[in-house]
Design brief:
The chain has 542 residues and is of the alpha/beta class. The chain has two domains: 34-42 and 72-287, Aldehyde Dehydrogenase, Chain A, domain 1; 292-487, Aldehyde Dehydrogenase, Chain A, domain 2, CATH 3.40.309.10. It contains 18 helices and 26 strands. The protein has a seven-stranded mixed sheet with strand order 16-19-20-15-14-22-23, sandwiched between helices. Strands 11-10-9-12-13-25 form a six-stranded mixed sheet, sandwiched between helices. The chain has a four-stranded mixed sheet with strand order 1-5-6-2. A hairpin with a 2-residue loop joins strand 7 (165-167) and strand 8.
Length: 542
């Protein structure tokens, strides 16, 4: 079984001329942002964007400069907000009043234009956030699939709504209507996919969008600005760049945001909601913190458990809200399990995102390596050990995964969401211990149970279904398939996302009703027959 030594770690980074031509990207100095249907030139301050991939130079390792983005201020941010408010126009704007069929055609045009930028966006994902080539490719393709699935789901929803209902002498048509201006803010770890899982359903339901780009992965959206501009009416999508603390605060304080679609920390989400002067008018769709546990009992197939936990804990270096971040293992099998886990981690190939079979890549967050070291050092000081050779070894933006054992309740790794390549393993005697952990945890997103004993699994299922939103049996925690609901309990989420649920989350049921009289029936028939209303319609979208 091979392992990584310190010398080969330094060799992971290359000089400029060692990077294959097919994976190089041009530096992008973005001097424009999307405002009211135009790409407005920006002449002010900019923020330079650096890659987590370091380059060997005469002065040592240096993060590669990828380009820059506008650093707009509060004044420009409020102009962006006003463009979104104007485009919505209290629900009377072109986009919110457009027929469902019309909005679908605009979205199909966007997908067509998006696919044209596929290769460049995949390269930018690799360079900006250090995601591997297969994972970057999967993120793009999955996002396209998600948009197409959303279009199909909206067609189904519209078909269900394309008839009149009668009850107690009243006739009505019930459809879903938009909510208003949506502030969309997403994370760096899935800067395309996760953001679009809120932005796309919000958009296609007739809302207008304020799109705050993520701190990392921001340039990957640059090729899509023209697609947004060309596919949708002006003001429908407007982009925000800059420091969130400076530009988002006045936007929220204005009270003009109707929906907050945010993926990030619960602390930030709570702060944003409190800024809104009319909280009851603000709908929040939030995907937040998670500390997903895996439970490996003495009845588990350890080979399956190790394989799935490696995927769950270390896919994209563990930088996923659905990552497995705390592993409980029953003491009877702890020695065998940790031996197998350690061997599997040691065999993982570190490298640059485009290299074949690479599993561990550089981390985009500059302070992440030092934070992970703090967590590991805290555990070591309180009696734990790093079991795998070179576990936690750091070289600039690289951190090799560390299996830390035995972790207990006194350690930071037990409580804090590490969001990185560290696997804390907690031994336990009684099955009630991991249950108690979940009861007392601040988070409640998912759990993974590894056991072959039906009675044991049954008990754990019944214990956890009311503590978390998804219980995984003998497999890693994950978001997909996208048709399944994605949410969480406690501080982990607000609202539910899936292809089906998201359309409902970003809309409200609205109806037109009348008493069943001959004159009203004639009136409604005339409106429907002459297609005078985009809301009242019995058209069937194929």
């Amino acid at each position: 079984m091979s392992s990584v030594n310190e010398t080969s770690f330094h060799d992971l980074f290359k000089s400029e001329n060692e990077i294959p031509e097919e994976y190089k990207v041009p530096e992008i100095y973005q001097r424009e942002y999307l405002l009211n249907g135009e790409l407005v030139e920006w002449k002010g301050d900019v923020t330079e964007i650096y890659s987590p991939v370091c380059i060997k130079t005469e002065n040592g390792l240096q993060r590669k400069l990828l380009g820059s983005i506008p650093n707009i201020g509060p004044k420009e941010a409020m102009e962006v907000l006003e463009a979104s408010v104007k485009a919505y126009d209290n629900g009377l704007g072109e986009w919110p009043t457009m027929s469902v069929e019309g909005r679908i055609k605009c979205m199909q045009k966007f997908v067509y234009l998006m696919i044209k930028e596929r290769d460049l966006i995949i390269k930018l994902l690799m360079w900006e956030i250090g995601k591997t080539l297969p994972d970057s490719t999967k993120e793009f393709d999955r996002t396209v699939d998600y948009i197409n699935q959303t279009i199909d789901a909206l067609k189904d929803l519209d078909r269900e709504s394309s008839r009149f209902q009668q009850a107690e002498g009243t006739i009505a048509q019930i459809r879903r209507a938009p909510l208003g201006v949506v502030l969309s803010m997403g994370p760096f770890n899935y800067p395309l996919n996760e953001i679009f899982t809120t932005l796309i359903p919000a958009l296609i339901m007739g809302n207008t969008i304020l799109f705050k780009l993520p701190k990392h992965g921001v340039l990957a959206h640059y090729p899509l600005l023209k697609a947004f501009k060309e596919a949708f009416p002006k003001g429908t999508v407007n982009t925000l760049y800059g420091k969130g603390s400076e530009i988002i605060t006045p936007i929220m304080e204005s009270g003009k945001v109707n929906v907050l679609a945010f993926i990030g920390s619960s602390k930030v989400a709570n702060g944003l909601k409190k800024l809104h002067p009319k909280v009851n008018r603000l709908r929040a769709i939030l995907s937040l913190d998670a500390k997903n546990a895996a439970i490996v009992t003495k009845n588990a197939n350890l080979d399956i458990a190790v394989s799935e936990i490696i995927l769950g804990a270390l896919s994209f270096n563990g930088q996923r809200c659905t990552a497995l971040k705390l592993i409980f293992v029953q003491k009877e099998v702890a020695e065998e399990f940790t031996k197998k886990l350690t061997e599997a981690v040691s065999a993982l190939k570190p490298g640059l995102p485009w290299e074949k079979e690479v599993k561990i890549t550089p981390l985009p967050e500059i302070n992440k390596p030092s934070y992970l070291k703090e967590c590991i050092d805290d555990a070591l000081a309180k009696g734990a050990k790093v079991l795998n050779e070179n576990g936690g070894f750091t070289e600039e933006s690289f951190v090799f995964p560390a299996v830390v054992y035995p972790v207990d309740i006194e350690m930071k790794l037990y409580h804090e969401e590490q969001f990185g390549p560290v696997i804390p393993v907690v031994p336990f005697d009684d099955i009630e211990e991991p249950i108690d952990y979940q009861v007392n945890a601040d988070h409640g997103m998912q759990v993974s149970i590894f056991s072959e004993d039906a009675l044991e699994v049954s008990k754990l299922i019944d214990s956890f279904v009311n503590l978390v939103s998804r219980v995984n049996i003998n497999c890693q925690a994950q978001r997909g398939p996208d048709v399944f609901p994605f949410t969480g309990r406690k501080d982990s989420a607000e609202g539910t996302l899936s292809v089906f649920d998201a359309l409902r989350s970003f809309s409200i049921r609205s109806l037109v009703a009348a008493k069943i009289t001959d004159s009203n029936k004639e009136l409604l028939n005339t409106i429907v027959r002459d297609h005078d209303s985009n809301f009242l319609s019995t058209d069937y979208i194929f």
